Amino acid sequence: MTRARQDRLLGLLVRQGEWVTAGRLADTLGVTPRSVRSYVTALNGRLAGGVVVESGPQGYRAGADAPSALRAAVPDAVTPQDRLHTLIRALLDQPEGIDVHETAEALHVSSGTIEADLGRVRSLLTGTTLVLARAGSRVRMHGAESAQRRLLSRLVHEEMDAAAFDTHGMRRVLGEGSLSAAVHGAFETALRSGLGTRGYFINELGIADVLMHIAIAADRVAHGRALDTASESAGEAADEIASLVGALVDEHLGVALGAGDRHHLAMLILTRVVTPGSAVASTPPVDPEVEEAVRDLVSAAAEEFLVDLVHEDFIRRLSMHVQNLRRRAAEQAWSRNPLARSLKSTYPMIFDIAVSIASGLRDRLGMTLPDDEIAYIAMHVGGRLERSRRAEQLLTATIVCPGYYELHELLRSSVDRSLGQAIEVVGLQTRMDPDWAAIDTDLVLTTVDAPPAVERAVRIQPFLTDADVERVQAAASRVRRGRRLARLRGELERYFDAAAFVPALSASSEEAAIRLLGGKLVALDVVDDDYVERSIERERLSSTAFTDALAVPHAIGMTAVRTVIAVGVADPSIAWGDSRVQVVAMVAFSEADREAFQTVFEQLVEVFSEHDSVARIVRRATDFSSFLDELVAVIDG
Which PROSITE patterns does UniProt cross-reference here (predicted)? Predict the structure, then answer.
């Protein structure tokens, strides 16, 4: 039983915020319900007298002490993960290396266990410039200081998984002598103040990551492992921030940074945390190569996905972001995005647009981006599309309110003020007995009883109350969802094919599943083998597991002869990236169905984001006919 798996279970419960059955947790984690029970017991044992996980007839849910349990420190080397961190710290801190037998004795484990841990260290070093060198029982780590720091930042990110940044997770990796919570808070306040007085706006998602790098730099310098001296100035802005960081680290952490570390941290701040405000003399120019690449990729994405993206202000902001991203990519110093998981599951099409742009950046500028960085691009894209998305979701409404002085006008003003972003009032009926059949708006907001046949009616008071507002918002949500799912039902019935259905999907990897389902599409002459290969390539860019139950592998580009969705149902679930899924829907879209892409893609993800719906479909879908029947039944509610 590993702490990492316990933490993952607790993280799932925290994110759900409601009761989750043992079976569902077991399927998500790829373990048995019995293991889930043992994890819950271990989690509740972390805090004496605390309630970390509640148990009940409906399963489990996060207790009041769940956040504290996620941050709870454990003694060094109690778990394999903690032992691994201790071992890596020793290798990084001791230039002369470590002795396997002495380390085993210090950690109260066998030499064979340390040998196995060294194997895990070697696997972590794959793809880096770091290597382990061995002479007898002594092992040393060789490599540039910058690469060693990247290894530490990677361990911190893995320790915190998808949780918010916290100093406890960082201290579990760097050691209890690193940045404490109290010092962290004072340092962050001082850094924010210093940047603000110099005319910079703070990027809230990036500052925690930079604080981690500052803590790593201070720790390494304190151990005599400073970066090389900077060769030349990186510009007036960088020099000013370098001076600020140096002074703050000296004051709060008691460490004197050299020129190399000061300028390294200044560049991290400039490329991750700050945006020039009005008090800054000038905005840094954008490299013409970067701006041209971004403009071309945004134009291509707008055409491919039929979205309104081509605006000069958006292209300029995204170009500045990509320019900073290019600098980070050169050092493989990626930023973590705590919203990556929720962005992917809630806005799958926006995330897919970001993946398309990221794919182009790889080809044009040589940058291969992780999910966290793709999520930042998705945030830029989502911000640009939000206005048009709101306009599309606006519903029409008619108010029925008997005329009495200005009562009806006051009610209309109240509705506009409280609900103007969700509905648009286009009609006002002041009769007690209006022609209900003639009212054709999406909603009818009435102060008098409507006939039962008027299903769109929402009863409200003449003087709008908070309860009225909530009822109207709920009704509007039902109408919007009903429309989306109705469109989805029509599209899916056209696109599914019995010959491309696998009722008992079993695959050893994502690639194997894609090849199996892709083979069904090739056999139908819908796509060729190249499409399957491009789907595998797309999967390597970013996992297509958009929910805890559904993966939607597909290639970039709508090149299918006709649109078909190949479906595999897995019971039990299969591993997919860092998740486990029960349904794999491989989508092949044709150019002719371009406009349907958003409807099908986003709403398919919405349907399979509801666990009860997934469980029902998986349990009853023994063949293609029953799968389609259950899917339609779920859509119809």
Answer: PRD_2 (PS51372), PTS_EIIA_TYPE_2 (PS51094)
